[in-house]
Design a protein that fits this description.
about 350 residues, alpha/beta, TIM Barrel, 2 domains, eight-stranded parallel β-sheet
Length: about 350
C-alpha cells in the first residue's frame, strides 16, 4: 500500500505541473479527450463536479455546420459560459475555407482553443476527406493548420494518428510540418487510422513525435490505470496525457491521479444519478436516453459482471427509471475490474 501511495504521489507531481500552450497557462497535464456522443455538455457538467481536469474538449463538431449552429439548440456545438476558459472546441473538416470560418466562430464565442481533428477514421469522415483522411495528404493537413493559425489568436491543437501504415516516419515528418504551420500542441494517438482499437497502441511511437518537435506533445490511447499513465509519461517523454474512454468510465480519475482524491463507497451510484439528471436538463428525452445508453457501455465495463448491469439499465424508459435502477442495482459491494472489461469497452 505504501508503494502504491508513493507511486500515486509521484504521478500527481508529474501531472500537476502547469503548462503553457500558446501563451496560456493550463493547471495540469491530464486532459479529457474529445469523443463523439460522449463529451457533451451533460458529461462535462458532471466532470466539472469531480474536478481537476486540466483541459476539456468538446465532441467532434462539423466545421461546415458550426458557422450557423445555435448553441441553445445544437446537441453538439453547445456549452455553458463557465466552461469556456477551460474548453477547447474540436473541429472536423476537409478544406481550409470551412475550417477557417468555423475556427473564427469558435474564437469569437470565447473558447480556450480550437482542436483540428486528424484522427477520426469513421467511414463518413474518410469519404468527406476529413479526419484521418488528411493524413494521406500531409501538405493539405499542414495548409489547413496554417490557415487556421493565421485566422485565430487562440491556441491551436491537432489530434492525429500514426497514419495509414505502421511506419512512424511519415507521422514524425507531419508533426514537424504541423509545428511549422503554427500548431501550439499535438495530441497523438499511436494507432494506424484503419485500426478501430482492435490492436494495442504503439506507445513508443509517441516518443518519436515528441522528439520531432519542440511544442508540447500529449499521448493518448488505452490509458486506464495510474500505472499506464506513468508508463506513457516515462517511456515517451510526452508532456501530458489525454484520457478518453476511461474518463467516461470514471470521471473522478482526474482528481484521483492529480490531487489524491479518494472516491467514496457510493461514487459509482452517485455518478450515474448525476449524469442522468444532467442529461435530463441538457437534452430532450429521446436524445438524452440515447446518450445514456452509449455511456452505459463504458460505465458497465468497470464491473466484473458489466454485461448484466448494462442489460438491466437497457430497460430504462426515462431518466427517472435510470435513477431508480442506479439506487437498486449499484452498490459498494459490486466486483470491480482493475482495468475495463474490453468486450464492453471497445464498443
Amino acid at each position: 500500500m505504501k508503494e502504491s501511495t508513493t507511486n500515486l504521489s509521484k504521478l500527481a507531481a508529474q501531472l500537476s505541473t502547469p503548462l503553457s500552450i500558446g501563451g496560456r497557462t493550463i493547471a495540469n497535464r491530464l486532459w479529457l479527450a474529445p469523443m463523439a456522443g460522449l463529451t457533451h455538455t451533460a458529461f462535462r457538467q458532471v466532470l466539472n463536479h469531480y474536478g481537476s481536469c486540466g483541459l476539456v474538449f468538446t465532441e467532434m463538431c462539423s466545421a461546415k455546420a458550426v458557422p450557423t449552429e445555435k448553441p441553445g439548440i445544437s446537441p453538439v456545438f453547445s456549452w455553458h459560459e463557465w466552461e469556456l476558459p477551460n474548453l477547447v472546441c474540436q473541429l472536423v473538416g476537409a478544406t481550409e475555407e470551412e475550417m477557417v470560418i468555423a475556427a473564427k466562430r469558435v474564437e469569437d464565442e470565447g473558447f480556450f482553443g480550437v482542436d483540428i481533428n486528424m484522427g477520426c477514421s469513421a467511414r463518413g469522415m474518410i469519404k468527406r476527406e476529413a479526419g484521418a483522411a488528411l493524413l494521406k495528404t500531409p501538405e493539405k493537413a499542414a495548409a489547413i493548420v496554417e490557415a487556421v493559425r493565421k485566422t485565430v489568436s487562440i491556441p491551436v491543437f491537432v489530434k492525429f494518428r500514426t497514419g495509414w501504415s505502421k511506419d512512424i516516419t511519415p507521422a514524425a515528418a507531419l508533426a514537424k510540418d504541423l509545428e511549422s504551420a503554427g500548431a501550439d500542441c499535438l495530441v497523438f494517438h499511436p494507432r494506424v487510422a484503419p485500426d478501430k482499437r482492435t490492436r494495442p497502441p504503439q506507445i513508443d511511437h509517441i516518443r518519436h513525435i515528441k522528439e520531432a518537435v519542440s511544442i508540447p506533445v500529449f499521448g493518448n490511447g488505452d490509458v486506464t490505470t495510474p500505472e499506464h499513465c506513468r508508463n506513457m509519461l516515462d517511456r515517451t517523454g510526452c508532456d501530458g496525457v489525454s484520457i478518453g474512454r476511461m474518463a467516461v468510465a470514471r470521471p473522478w480519475l482526474f482528481a484521483e491521479w492529480t490531487a489524491g482524491y479518494e472516491p467514496g463507497a457510493y461514487i459509482f451510484q452517485d455518478y450515474v444519478i448525476r449524469l442522468a439528471t444532467a442529461l435530463e436538463e441538457e437534452f430532450d428525452p429521446i436524445r438524452g436516453l440515447k446518450r445514456f445508453r452509449l455511456f452505459m457501455a463504458y460505465f458497465a465495463a468497470n464491473f466484473r459482471y458489466g454485461h448484466s448491469l448494462q442489460a438491466t439499465f437497457a430497460t430504462a424508459k426515462n431518466m427517472e427509471d435510470v435513477r431508480r435502477t442506479a439506487r437498486e442495482y449499484i452498490s459498494p459491494d459490486m466486483d470491480l475490474s482493475k482495468t475495463p472489461n474490453m468486450s464492453l469497452y471497445n464498443l
